[in-house]
Every structure is written in structure tokens, then in C-alpha cells.
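COURSE: Structural Biology Practicum
ASSIGNMENT: Worksheet 4, Part C
STUDENT ID: 0417
INSTRUCTIONS: Below are two proteins. For each, the amino acid sequence is given first, followed by its C-alpha cell string. Answer the questions at the end about the second protein only.

PROTEIN I
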Amino acid sequence: MQKINLAQKFGTFTDTWVPKVVGQLNGQLVKLAKFEGEYVWHAHENEDELFLVVEGHIDIHFRDETVPLDEGEFCIVPRGVEHKPVAEKLASVLLFEPATTCNTGVVDHKYTIETDGLEHI
């Protein structure tokens, strides 16, 4: 059994838009990331994705609406739905998604990190 302290883990990195793996269960990964600025429009064809704001505020943009998220709030983006996270100021976010999920979906972008290239902290 292992206890994970989110604040301690977030304190180990400063880069933005680079998810770090802190746990896994049942084929799912628990990832931490810092968001700042705008991400890229993308969708995940086969995976749902959960965004939980630990610190700060983010907006999840969809083509027809924007969902604002404050600390302690989360949003599940269903598979196939195009979205773009935006954080006007630095925010700390927990992501929960299948281990096969590429962070930019099918979009090839400078933020793309292949699943085998994710850092475990």
C-alpha cells in the first residue's frame, strides 16, 4: 500500500502541459499536470477523460459551450468530444483516463507525448 500526497507530487515539477503519472488501476492512469495558457483542440476517439482541478481555475472549451472549473470541481469529457483546456493562470489538475490515452488525441502537436513516454513520479 502506498499513500500519495498530491501537494508533494505537484511540488516536484514546474513544466506545463506535461502530465506525470502518479498511479494506475484497472488499466487507468492517474496523472497530474500543471496548466497555463491554451492547449490544443483535440478529441479522444475511444477514451473518456476526467479533469479534476486541485488548485486554481480552468475552463474546458467545447465547440458549443465552456465549462468553468474551480478547485475541487471536475468534468468528464466523453470520448469523441472535441475540447480544449484553458488556464489563464497556473492551475494544478488531476487527470484520470485509460492508459492508452494520448494526451492530444489524434492531433499531432508540440504537446503530444506518446503513452510510453510519460514520466512516473
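PROTEIN II
(use this one for the questions)
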Amino acid sequence: MSGKLLVVLTFILCAVSRPQAQTLDEVYKRALTEGGTLNFYATLAQVNAASILPGFEKRFPGIKVNHVDATSDQLAARVIAESRGGKVVADVFQTLLDGMIRVQSQGLFLDKLYPEAAEYPAELKGTTWVATDLIYIVAAWNTTKIKKQDEPKQFDDFADPRWKNQLIAEPRDFQLLLGLAKHKYKSDEKAVALLKRIADNNVQFHKGHSQLAELLVAGQAAACVTCYSHHYPSRKRKGAPVDYMLTEGTGDIDATAIMKNAPHPNTALLFARWTASEEGQKIYAQGGRLPAHPKVEPVEKTRPTKVYPLGEQDVKDYPKYEKMWKEIFGLR
């Protein structure tokens, strides 16, 4: 037998014997035997969840999503505490990368990726997680309080004393400092100097980016220094007096992982695979998020012209920059 023929026969035998990944519909059939519930621990904003989660439920009738909504650090603390108590409640965990890495370090995620992960570049997946969507920290403002000519064009603008007592922000958004230091200025000193000048304007802090958006809509503040860009297109369409900055922003990854001992393992796999698929990513886009899938385009204008990206390697520096951030703004 010639060497060329041997290679061909070997290829054919491997192709025949290679196990094929189950389709989503095949996984769905198995999921239906688990009770029809998915416990979804996620920071997915309600304004987005209201259209995204029904999209999944419509695609897979008989399965209802129990969305446990909280901040990234609250959800991480909850699943770790539940695990230590001997009970895993969550099926799927979806938060920003810092929350993912915190839970991953406890060995609580299924350490195996699914077929859809192959479509994603290395920087958008780990050993246990796949990026779901991209989050951008930008500035936003109330248009009844800020005249068109006074709208901020960059973060530096908030150092001007005219913003004193008019600014709000999220107390845990030290990623802004990290992005500015590593990518915009390439200098910790310059980034710290800017934020100290912004701090002199007496920034008021409120937990939760949805809360920040609603405060702006209600006119409780003139501008927000650290808001999520995807929170604003839908509010603008509904006539809310808000706008947001797309000249620059810090980019963060929102990711999805399956709990290692998920109470509904097939349902968890189904949701994770659907979320990472082109089909699911299009629903995320229609729901106002910026999809991470390389082949799916966003529907809304939420991506800043200049992005200061943060990846898994930057997570290692989080403690350093979080400490600096708290010192700058006098946060506990």
C-alpha cells in the first residue's frame, strides 16, 4: 500500500470514529429531563435581560431562567459561600472577568469548554469561561443639565472645577484607572494625577451601573464618570434625557462559565452553548449588548472609538489598582 493511500485511509477512519458533538437540540432533549429550570447567576442588567432571556426561553420551550441578579463581587461571594456550605445552587455563572477569576480560583467551574468556544480568539476565552459580551466604561450625562457645547469629550474634562458637586460614579470601577494608566497614558503617575483632580470635584458614589443610569435619567446628577455604554441606547430611544461618550472608554470582558456541580448540568450546558453560539450572540446583540463572537456585529452604538482593553492578565494587577483607586477617592 502506498504511503499516500495509507494517509487517506487513516484520515477516513479517524473521521468515522471521531465522536461528533451533540447539537443544541440534542442537548435540549436531555435538559428537559432536569425539571425545566436554569439557575442563572449573572450581572446581566434587567434592561437587557428583559429581551435576552425570553429569547432563550422561546427557543427552548419548557425551560425557565431563574435570573439571580447582583453585582459581580456579590455573586462571586454567594456561589463561594454556597459551595462551602455544601450546596451548589447556580447552574451558570456570568459576570465580569474579575468575578469569574475569583470563582475560578476556588475550582468551582467545569474545566472543559464546549464546541462553540472554538470560534473565539484566545484573549476571549480561558480554560473554564468564554466571553459573552464586552463592557465599556464611558462617561454619560443628563442632557437637560449639560448644554451641548459643554458635553465631555474625554475623561480629562471632568478635572475641570466646573464639574464640582455634579458627578457620580461606581465605587468599584478601578478598571478606569487601570485602563488609563496602562493604555492611555502608559503611566501610573499621570493617571493618578488626573483622577485626583477629578476627585477634587467631590464625586458621589453609588453601587450598581443600572442605578447610576436611573439617577441620571431622574436628574439626580449632571454626569456619570463611570457608566456602562450599553445602558443608554434603549433609554435614549424611550426619550430619557441622557447621552453618553463614545470617544474613549475602558473595555472589560463579561464571560460565562458552567458550575462544576451544577444541579441542572444539561440545562447549564445548553444555555452556555447557546450563549456562545452565533444564534445566541445575535439575541444578545438585539438585547443591547456588544457581542463577543467575532462574526456577530453589535446592533447598538456602544463601542468607543478608542478602547483601553483589559484582559485576564490585567486581573493580576487588580489589587494594586483597586487600592490606588480607593486611596484617590477616599473609599473604604
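ANSWER KEY EXCERPT:
Q1: Residues 4-19 have pLDDT under 50 and may be disordered.
Q2: Residues 3-17 form the longest helix (15 residues).
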